[in-house]
Predict the 3D structure of the following.
Amino acid sequence: MTYSYPVHLNIQYSNNNEYRDCIRQVFQMNARNFPDTSMLELDDETQDEMMYDDKSANDMMDFIYERTKLKDEFIDLYSKAASFMFSIDTNIGLTILFGYDYLDLFHSLLQVFFSNPSESTIAQSSEYTRLYDKLYSK
């Protein structure tokens, strides 16, 4: 499958359900890959949490990492985010940036990057500055 980052998506959320819906869209999840929970008695929150396609998430994160791993600006963000988990693994940092606290800002930065991946001024973008400031204010 050929991947491209969904730069057209408008990411806005104010609760867990909206956030998970945004994640499903960003990772281009396939509902056919969600686990079958029809035989389980689950509350709405748990049911929504189960609607997750690991393969799509991993494939998209691999796609993003492969295209950003040589960019110092991204490595700096990944390293800082990883440090919150007492790690230096940049892949962990990437995963953290898809968390509730950072998805909206990270998505905005990825929109800029994937709209013009040859652009060398990522660090001067307001999207980078906002995410950087949030990470480094902790």
